[in-house]
């Protein structure tokens, strides 16, 4: 049965790395049909809306979306497109794996960390934001609910169980944020008792960041709230060579969206030198989600071999090749 996938090419380097990713997906001989839709600056220019209803309808119908980086214009009246998508489809789990690839600027060997971030509330809920008339005092409300905390903690334990991972670390700031972070910690401790076969520990977020830099191999699965997860997942990406190597997924009960987590890099847009690895790895996550586990691993192995052989690498990976050249190098190893 044909699987229809909503494709959002994105802004800046988005179209270039998406074309590379689709070229690789086409090599896998899977029964996919691509449904191209607009979002971001291109959508604003074409339709007068950063996130057109037609795009939302397509994602809802197809249930699977592969998305390039989007640019939210700076200034009043524009809210984050990514946050809007997560809330609209209740994509409660943000999943960010980082794995060491030989041949990159990775600071460590044998890193394999999965960060699971609550995606719909916390500091990013943005409710109750106010600033006084003379712009000297700004306020914003943080909301953490038991339901959302249970959803994300259970998801982390279940994905650890399914993947054969051994340890889950709940990251918090309950020593200071005693109500919001305290509730998350309380829920995590309660739910850990349901998974006695998985090692469980808790860490304060600032200590977590230090420990990640000093000894990242102690971490396996990290589960945390929205803001902390945003920061920690980028820190983890830095351990393995940067955001150019970091894919991400946003998972809900009905819809799943896969993406490169880096920005749109307008400074190099159109130069055809962007590294497409993050989006290719996101596509591998997507097809694994759809049940094509062996095919996803083939893509990852082809990338690993290309990096190890230093064959036609882009500038950020230490080479001087174009995006299309790197893509062909990966394809030659599939």
UniProtKB/TrEMBL annotation:
GO BP terms, alphabetized: isocitrate metabolic process; tricarboxylic acid cycle
Residue span(s) of domain Isopropylmalate dehydrogenase-like: 4-330
Stored Pfam families: Iso_dh (PF00180)
InterPro entries reported in the protein's UniProt record: IsoCit/isopropylmalate_DH_CS, IsoPropMal-DH-like_dom
Alphabetical keyword list: Oxidoreductase
GO molecular function, one term: isocitrate dehydrogenase (NAD+) activity
Entry annotated with the keyword Oxidoreductase: yes
Alphabetical list of NCBIfam families matching this protein: PRK08997.1
Name of protein: Isocitrate dehydrogenase (NAD+)
Source species taxonomy: Bacteria, Pseudomonadati, Pseudomonadota, Gammaproteobacteria, Lysobacterales
């Amino acid at each position: 049965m044909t699987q229809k996938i909503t494709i959002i090419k994105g802004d800046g380097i988005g179209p270039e790395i998406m074309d590379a990713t689709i070229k690789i997906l086409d090599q896998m001989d899977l029964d996919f049909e691509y449904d191209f839709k607009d979002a971001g600056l291109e959508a604003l220019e074409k339709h007068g809306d950063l996130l057109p209803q037609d795009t939302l309808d397509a994602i809802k119908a197809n249930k699977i979306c592969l998305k390039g980086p989007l640019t939210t214009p700076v200034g009043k009246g524009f809210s984050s497109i990514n946050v809007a998508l997560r809330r609209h489809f209740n994509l409660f789990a943000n999943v960010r794996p980082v794995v060491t690839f030989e041949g990159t600027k990775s600071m460590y060997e044998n890193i394999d960390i999965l960060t699971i971030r609550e995606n719909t509330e916390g500091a990013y809920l943005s409710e109750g934001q106010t600033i006084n008339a003379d712009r000297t005092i700004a306020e914003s409300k943080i909301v953490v609910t038991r339901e959302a905390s249970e959803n994300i903690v259970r998801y982390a334990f279940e994905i650890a169980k399914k993947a054969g991972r051994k340890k889950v670390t709940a990251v918090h700031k309950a020593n200071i944020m005693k109500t919001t972070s305290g509730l998350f910690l309380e829920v995590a401790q309660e739910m850990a008792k349901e998974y006695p076969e998985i090692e469980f520990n808790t860490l304060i977020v600032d200590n977590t960041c230090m420990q990640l830099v000093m000894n990242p191999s102690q971490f396996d699965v990290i589960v945390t709230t929205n803001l902390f997860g945003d920061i920690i997942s980028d820190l983890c990406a830095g351990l393995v060579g940067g955001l150019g190597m970091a894919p991400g997924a946003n998972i809900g009960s009905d819809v799943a969206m896969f993406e490169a987590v880096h920005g749109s890099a307008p400074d190099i847009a159109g130069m055809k030198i962007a590294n497409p690895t993050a989006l290719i790895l996101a596509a591998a996550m997507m097809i694994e989600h759809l049940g094509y586990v062996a095919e996803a691993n083939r893509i990852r192995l082809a990338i690993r071999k290309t990096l190890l052989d230093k064959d036609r690498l882009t500038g950020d990976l230490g080479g001087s090749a174009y995006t299309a050249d790197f893509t062909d190098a990966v394809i030659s190893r599939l």
